[in-house]
Design a protein that fits this description.
The complex is a heterodimer of chains A (257) and B (278).
Chain A lengths: L2 E9 L9 E9 L3 E6 L5 H9 L6 E6 L2 E2 L7 E4 L11 H11 L4 H14 L15 H14 L4 E5 L7 H18 L2 E6 L2 H7 L2 E6 L4 E7 L2 H6 L4 H5 L2 H15 L5
Parallel strand pairs in A: 3-8, 3-9, 6-7, 7-8
Antiparallel strand pairs in A: 1-2, 1-4, 4-5, 9-10
Helix pairs in contact in A: 2-3, 2-4, 3-4, 6-9
Chain B lengths: L1 H10 L15 H22 L11 H13 L7 H32 L1 H14 L4 H12 L3 H25 L3 H9 L4 H35 L8 H10 L3 H29 L7
Helix pairs in contact in B: 3-11, 4-5, 4-7, 4-9, 4-10, 6-7, 7-9, 8-9, 9-10, 9-11, 10-11
The chains are: A alpha/beta (257), B mainly alpha (278).
Chain lengths: 257, 278
């Protein structure tokens, strides 16, 4: 069981005075689902880029099981906002690419890719081109690709931001199932309070200028959905609604004048 | 939804676009053909009316006669087909070798600071040189053989290929590169799996520009010690003021360039179907 930890992370971009993130400490274990929410400019995406290893912190340390992270790696798969698929490869070839780079034989990687595409309900789309898919389908390819190499952590940067509301609801349920099946630790950057609340075992609110954790609370709605409870019933519980209001209050507190 | 659209269409004013019966003509083709047709007409008119001496401007019929003459009987020691084959070979051999060198050079410039430092000034040095300026040097260094002719054309092609490769690599999305890095891609894998494929559309454009440069340089490359080739044919004709043959040669070069451009566009659609699709 691996733990991805960010301890006392600060990040200042060269040539700027205000840090983007200041003294952020966060720990993501496999089996956790942490959502990070906050207003624009609160450093959500920077936080994810640090966890992924795309950025190095100005101070503090990102580590996995005690070993410092120096760059991106196959133990942390990333799902991007803009899907970042490769249009010169077919759907199945996109999902198989991480395995190809890891040296897995062609038959085996294709079989694994097809299995993950089935898990995201894309059977029959395997040999299509990327541009023949809808936005929701493309994000599902991105998620299948991220999970295909069997990562310990799944880092998602607003993957559902561009999708319509109904597609989003279905994606939430799919994400929870995949998270449960893959035993990954999930880190989700999102703008949607309801999404964060429904999916996560823990929601972190980042406040801007400089980005810092202003609120953190644990929930179990996602786990209860996996145990078979009805998502609409869960989302209309008084506890859910109260938690949503607490999160909204935390996000909008100290609104700049 | 469909009903609504139908209603709106029915309600729209008679002046709206939708009501007018649409003429389905391939306007691009029609315009292109009428421009060329018009030019030939003016040309025929000019030579028929005697506005210019036939030595300067032979009639279209005379040029056509020159074309059939070189096609069947040959001119300057070779038939049209042989001239065409010699020139096509030079241009496409040059393209092949230039791609072989130019694409890796472009990848090096785009992906390595050291590569850029060493190679970029060289490419920038070669880029503006007129072929007639370096032709003598190539002949002094490399002789008057076939290799020199291909080299002269190839030098003219190098910059478009290199520059288009460099800018193509920059077209790879930041997140596409990041995604590959999270898969643990090595530098070589990153170039092969992401940067090169992302650069292909741009490289294709570079190839088309390079081919244009190649045809432009062809005549220069066949200036010295050629016994065959369209450029050689034109120069031989020019020395004896056989103007109809000069124009015939120009038309053949233009036709070959057009055909190769069409071929490249077809290849682009066939092999790079993702171009223009987000």
């Amino acid at each position: 069981m691996s733990v991805l930890s960010l301890s006392h992370i600060s990040l200042t971009y060269p040539g700027t005075a205000t840090p983007v993130l200041k003294d952020v400490t966060l720990s993501l274990s496999q089996g956790d689902f942490i959502s990070v929410i906050g207003r624009s400019g609160s450093g959500k995406t920077s936080l994810m880029n640090l966890a992924a290893g795309f950025l190095q912190p100005s101070s503090g340390q990102v580590s996995i099981g005690g070993a410092p992270v120096t760059g991106p790696g196959p133990d942390r798969a990333v799902v991007f906002q803009d899907d970042a698929l490769f249009p010169w490869r077919t759907v199945v070839e996109n999902v198989a690419l991480p395995l190809k780079l890891a040296g897995v034989a062609r038959d085996e990687r294709e079989a694994t890719a097809r299995r993950w595409l089935a898990a995201v309900h894309l059977e029959g789309q395997e040999d299509k081109h990327i541009w023949q898919l809808s936005g929701g389908q493309r994000q599902r390819v991105g998620i299948a690709r991220a999970l295909a190499s069997g990562p310990d952590f799944l880092l998602m940067d607003e993957p559902l931001g561009a999708l319509d509301a109904m597609t989003r609801d279905r994606m939430h349920e799919l994400l929870l199932q995949l998270w449960d099946q893959s035993h990954t630790g999930a880190l989700l950057i999102t703008h949607s309070v309801e999404e964060a609340l429904f999916l996560s075992t823990s929601v972190v609110v980042l406040a801007p200028d400089p980005g810092r954790i202003s609120f953190q609370e644990s929930y179990d709605y996602g786990r209860r959905f996996i145990r078979g409870e009805d998502p609409r019933a869960l989302k209309s519980e008084p506890g859910f609604i109260a938690a949503r209001e607490r999160l909204l209050a935390a996000i909008y507190e100290k609104e700049p004048a | 939804m469909t009903d609504n659209t139908a209603d709106t269409a029915a309600l729209s004013t008679p002046h709206s676009r939708g009501d007018r019966p649409k003429l389905r003509l391939p306007w691009g083709l029609v315009l292109g053909l009428s421009t060329s047709g018009g030019l030939i007409l003016i040309w025929a008119l000019a030579s028929w009316a005697g506005w210019a001496s036939p030595v300067f401007l032979p009639s279209p019929a005379k040029v056509w006669a020159a074309l059939t003459r070189v096609a069947f009987d040959g001119y300057a020691n070779a038939t049209l087909l042989e001239h065409m084959a010699a020139s096509l070979w030079r241009v496409f051999a040059a393209l092949f070798f230039t791609m072989l060198i130019g694409v890796p050079v472009g990848l090096l410039i785009a992906t390595s600071k050291i590569g850029r430092g060493i190679l970029d000034p060289l490419v920038e040095f070669i880029r503006p040189l007129p072929p007639l300026a370096y032709l003598p040097l190539i002949i002094i260094w490399c002789g008057i053989g076939e290799g020199s002719k291909i080299l002269v054309i190839g030098i003219a092609m190098l910059a478009p290929i290199v520059i288009s490769t460099v800018s193509g690599v920059k077209a790879a999305g930041e997140n596409q590169i990041r995604a590959a890095r999270t898969f643990g891609a090595t530098r070589a894998q990153l170039i092969r799996e992401v940067m090169l494929p992302a650069a292909l559309p741009s490289i294709f454009t570079g190839m088309r520009i390079a081919l244009g440069a190649g045809w432009t340089t062809l005549v220069a490359s066949e200036l010295v010690a050629a016994t065959r080739g369209l450029g050689y044919m034109i120069q031989s004709a020019a020395q004896f003021l056989v103007t109809d043959m000069v124009i015939a040669g120009i038309l053949v070069i233009s036709a070959l360039a057009t055909i190769s451009e069409i071929l490249l566009r077809w290849m682009e659609r066939r092999f790079l179907p993702w171009i223009g699709k987000s």
